[in-house]
Specification:
With about 750 residues, the chain is of the alpha+beta class. The protein folds into three domains: about 210 residues, 2-Layer Sandwich (Aldehyde Oxidoreductase, domain 4); about 150 residues, Aldehyde oxidase/xanthine dehydrogenase, molybdopterin binding domain (Aldehyde Oxidoreductase, domain 4), CATH 3.30.365.10; about 350 residues, Aldehyde Oxidoreductase, domain 4, CATH 3.30.365.10. The chain has 19 helices and 31 strands. A seven-stranded mixed sheet has the order 12-13-10-20-17-18-19, sandwiched between helices. Strands 24, 25, 26, 27, 30 and 31 form a six-stranded mixed sheet that branches. The protein is globular and about 80 Å long. The N terminus is likely disordered.
Length: about 750
């Protein structure tokens, strides 16, 4: 069921501006007479019911309901609830009286340190947690001060609890709603007193998420659910090639199709306007195949998977094109030292690893609703990047940024694709063609696959030198592929180079002697972008597979080798050790293999193999261990164990869900995830040709959390990189074959 947002309701919204950061959080002035840009706030609280707005994040209504607006996009990861819990905990709000709202694209939500407003890199809690904590603690102190003044008692004698302020000596109580107006007049504390974590009632506890009911009942508003009075629907007719464009078409032919109201060109296609998405979709597909529709696909020539694989492999040997990667923190990075170590090694080995192009394949197709007039542009969109999106709205509409407004909806999956802003730009361009009419642009599923910003295909070559005792003396890693960083026209980062090529390399975590890493760019006319865990999704497979190969040729236990190289990293050691113990790892067994006829969940005998891998990033540590049973080349994944150290846990249920989801996401890609190109066209066009892991074939996943008081890290991505190398290590342990190319189905493996 879709909700309707009316023009009148938009006019009543207030435009929040003039943000300043104080010790108490982000505090705002409110301008009520904005003629143009209204924040499209999702709050259902009427102006008359509002008692006080304490910050952009917090409003307390007259009835005592606490309205918290989260600054980050919610795409299923639990940020919506997590940040609200942090604020509500310090506020001492009654969770049953808390209502959480999604953010607008207002600049007030920009992070005070970075100046950006985006949801990426699993940093929502680490970035905004302290801001929300301070906002809650400051407001609690102000509410207590207001109550103490009214009662004429010392503030130290008052306490907050369950959305009320109490004076225990006299048993008096006042609700937050009754105090909010007076509290807002109190000075903001310079150094608010935080709660003792031992007294937390919300943080650290598994509490049902506030957004669950709406998502189960269908009342939650995702981008694709937005409905406005008089709204029309649009679908683009685009070239089926990755870099193609429409040269000409027959408008009369389009208008002759059922339900079509209009058709006109925008920058990257033909907008087909209809009264329903279905009519627009059918007409756009028909127009694509119409004899009068002419495409220019010349920029897509040469986009062929086999040709690109050849170029990736050739690039690994092109020393003159190699660019040095960043050195591991605190360590020297010298090619001459590494070359000398390899040359003098008792034994040298070389392995090549490969990962394919991948689509994001979010359940909610790309969409945005735009309403453009001569005076303003308003957009509703499931976006990870509100500040960048608002810039795009301004540029595409030709209006000043202050006349452009954005409401962020729920996202039906993102994984980095909804960081991009192309679909919002298109929606605004379409809406400009019919000024004053709201238009919802929806991509077809086929367009989602064909015109994705793909995770690029990469190859890596590892050259390792061992001494006579099998110890590592040097390692040279070279990567080839399209640079996501360069595609987004970003400048190199001082000291980091190209982090989208080199993040998560083996030398970042393990104490490898004489490490050196470089990369060779292989430009291709394929649009690329960030995919869940970004460079770690590729380099995690390369790095952990390299360690397993080293263990095999040196006769070492893969776990023991890792622990030796991680001796100065207790958090890595802790997660690896516990994961190994829980999977039943027997130190010294090389490989982790045994014959077994015991019944499994598949009631099948076979050879059991175990593999283990480590992923570190986003302020969190995750070790994964896989146990599988092989019957020939048919593989049955019996168990996956993950042990996570993400610092202080805000909600254990959300953490476990994100870790499990990240594992299954990465597992699906490792087994069968790939996008091939033939004659410039992506071959995966829907879920029938790009299958995802189904519930029936999903293995058992156990998630164990390490209790910690360290700063909270991110968990949305840290579990994705480790599953592929842990799985391939288990395959090697079971049948003696080391898969070095993903997905595994390309090597003839099947999964039951």
């Amino acid at each position: 069921m879709a909700r309707s947002t009316t023009p009148d309701s938009l006019a009543r919204r207030r435009f929040l501006q003039t943000a300043t950061l104080t010790a108490g959080g982000l505090w705002l002035g409110v301008r009520t007479g904005s003629a143009h840009a209204e924040v499209l706030a999702p709050s259902s609280v009427s102006d008359a019911a509002i008692r006080a707005r304490f910050s952009v994040f917090l409003t307390i209504a007259a009835d005592g309901v606490v309205h918290i607006t989260g600054p980050q996009s919610e795409m299923g990861q639990g940020t919506h609830d997590g940040l609200a819990k942090i604020l509500a905990e310090e506020l001492d709000a009654d969770w049953a009286q808390v209502v959480i709202h999604l953010p607008s694209g207002d600049d007030a939500f920009r992070h005070p340190a970075t100046g950006r407003h985006r949801t990426a890199s699993s940093d929502s809690i680490s970035s905004y947690g302290d801001v929300m904590r301070r906002a809650g603690a400051s407001t609690r102190a102000m509410l207590i001060a207001a109550a103490a003044a009214r009662w004429e008692v010392p503030a130290a004698e008052c306490v907050a609890s369950a959305s009320s302020v109490l004076h225990p000596p006299t048993a008096r109580r006042l609700g937050f709603g009754a105090l909010a107006e007076a509290a807002a007049m109190q000075p903001v504390p310079v150094d608010p007193q935080f709660k003792d974590p031992a007294l937390y009632k919300l943080v650290g506890h598994a509490i049902p998420r506030k957004d669950a009911h709406g998502k189960v009942t269908g009342t939650a508003v995702f981008g694709i659910d937005v409905q406005l009075p008089g709204m029309l629907h649009a679908v683009l007719c685009r070239s089926p090639s990755v870099a193609g464009r429409v040269v000409s078409f027959s408008r009369d032919a389009a208008l002759a199709m059922p339900g079509v109201l209009d058709a006109y060109p925008i920058s990257d296609g033909i907008a087909v306007i209809a009264r329903t998405t279905w009519h627009a979709m059918q007409a756009a597909r028909a127009l694509e195949g119409h004899p009068q529709t002419v495409f220019d696909d010349s920029d897509s020539l040469g986009v062929d998977s086999e040709g690109m694989r050849t170029r990736l492999r050739e690039a690994l040997t092109q020393n003159d094109r190699a660019q040095v990667a960043r050195a591991p923190a605190g360590r020297k990075h010298d090619r001459a030292v590494t070359d000398a170590a390899l040359q003098n090694a008792a034994r040298q080995f070389e392995w090549t690893y490969e990962v394919p192009f991948l689509a994001h394949a979010a359940m909610e197709p790309l969409n945005a609703t735009a309403w453009v007039t001569d005076e303003s542009a308003q957009v509703w969109a499931p976006t990870q990047h509100p500040d960048g999106t608002r810039d795009v709205i301004a540029k595409a509409s030709g209006l000043p940024r202050e006349r452009c407004a954005l409401q962020v909806t729920f996202l039906g999956g993102g994984f980095g694709r909804k960081w991009e802003t192309d679909f919002v730009r298109q929606a605004v361009e379409v809406a400009r063609g019919r000024p004053g009419t709201p238009i919802k642009l929806t991509w077809t599923r086929e367009q989602d696959f064909r015109h994705d910003r793909f995770r690029p295909a990469h190859m890596a070559r590892s050259r390792v030198g061992l001494d006579a005792q099998g110890r590592i003396v040097g390692l040279h890693t070279r990567i080839s592929g399209i640079s996501m960083w360069r595609y987004q026209r970003r400048a190199p980062v001082p000291g980091l180079g190209d982090p989208f090529m080199t993040g998560g390399l083996i030398g970042d975590r393990y104490a490898i002697p004489a490490p050196y890493a470089d990369f060779v760019e292989t430009p291709e006319p394929v649009p690329v972008g960030t995919w869940r865990s970004v460079a770690h999704s590729m380099n995690g497979f390369f790095a952990e597979s390299t360690l397993d190969d080293i263990a095999a040729v040196s006769g070492r236990d893969p776990l023991a080798l890792r622990l030796e190289l991680l001796a100065g990293d207790p958090r890595s050691v802790a997660v690896l050790t516990e994961a190994a113990e829980r999977i039943g790892w027997k130190t010294g067994a090389t490989p982790q293999t045994k014959r077994s006829g015991r019944p499994s969940r598949h009631s099948t005998a076979g050879t059991v193999g175990r593999g283990i891998a480590l992923s570190v990033g986003y302020g969190s540590w995750c070790a994964q261990a896989v146990e599988l049973r092989a019957v020939g080349r048919v593989l049955h994944i019996e168990r996956i164990v993950a042990v996570v150290d993400c610092g202080r846990v805000i909600d254990p249920a959300s953490v476990e869900a994100q870790v499990s989801g990240g594992i299954l996401f990465g597992l699906s890609a490792a087994i069968d995830g790939r996008i091939d190109f033939v004659d410039g066209r992506a071959q995966g066009s829907n879920f029938d040709t790009a299958p995802l892991l189904r519930f029936a074939s999903a293995p058992q996943v156990e998630v164990h959390l390490i209790d910690s008081t360290a700063a909270s890290g991110g968990v949305g991505e840290v579990s994705t990189p480790g599953i592929a190398p842990a799985l391939t290590a288990a395959i090697f342990a079971a049948i003696g074959e080391r898969p070095r190319r993903l997905p595994l189905t390309t090597a003839g493996y099947s999964f039951a």
